[in-house]
Design a protein that fits this description.
This protein is mainly beta and about 180 residues long. It contains one helix and eleven strands. The protein starts with 15 loop residues before the first helix and ends in a 6-residue tail after the last strand.
């Protein structure tokens, strides 16, 4: 603490803006800075919720060592898919618009997610899955990935596990899409 104000240091992985957004989300109220160069009608800290979703999936984030945090907007066009893949770190996604269909490669089960819903993706090569847009409008997701610093992407392509998924995935896209 410094003169009654918390000291916020910028880390390698989190920007000061993200710290402010986390602070607001944690219930901290922004306090006006005692600076002459601050315009009175511009708040010193602001936050905008871009998307939100609800999930009942249990999850726990375990990390050994440093991690990269990626915040992404992913768009899956009608008829497109993410391709079969698995995640190298934790991923949480909120569906902002459209209907996102997730196919689990372990049992070929299918689950649909719509606006206001979230999904939590499992980690590792034994959790192969695919996301598909079987609708007529783009699916827009906001995604947070927490991955090892050595990872070059949040997911890795995987071979087709043999699920009969139909023609809706003819426009496979890079696994970067989800």
């Amino acid at each position: 603490m410094s003169r009654g104000h918390p000291v916020v240091k910028k880390s390698r992985l989190v920007t000061a803006g993200a710290v402010a957004a986390v602070a607001l989300g944690a219930g901290f109220a922004p306090q006006a800075a005692a600076r002459a160069d601050v315009t009175p009608d511009v708040p010193p800290v602001s936050s905008v919720t871009l998307s939100q979703g609800v999930t009942s999936a249990p999850f726990e984030i375990k990390a050994k060592g440093d991690r990269k945090v990626l915040y992404r907007k992913a768009v899956v066009q009608p008829g497109a898919s993410t391709g079969w893949h698995y995640h190298v770190g934790e991923e949480i996604a909120a569906i902002n618009s459209g209907t996102f269909t997730r196919i689990d490669g372990s049992d070929c089960s299918v689950k649909e997610y719509g606006p206001g819903e979230s999904l939590v993706e499992p980690v590792g090569p034994n959790t192969v899955h695919m996301g598909v847009n079987r609708g007529t409008e783009p699916v827009e997701l906001y995604v947070v990935d927490i991955i090892p610093t050595t990872a070059t992407a949040p997911s890795t392509a995987a071979p087709d596990p043999g699920c009969d998924i139909g023609p809706a995935t003819s426009k496979n896209t890079s696994t970067e899409a989800k």
